[in-house]
Amino acid sequence: MIILGVILIIIGAVANIPILYTIGAILAIVGVVLWVLGATGRAVGGRKHWF
What we know:
Number of helices: 2
Low-confidence stretches: none
Number of strands: 0
Order of helices and strands: HH
Radius of gyration: 13 Å
């Protein structure tokens, strides 16, 4: 999710498409939050790991 968000941010910035930039930023932020919660051992959505 983080990688997809970064790719969308790059495409949105290069192609000057603001909606891709926004969606990419949201995906990257959600990915980082899930990664941090999973790394701390906290169960997210009933699961210990998100793959």
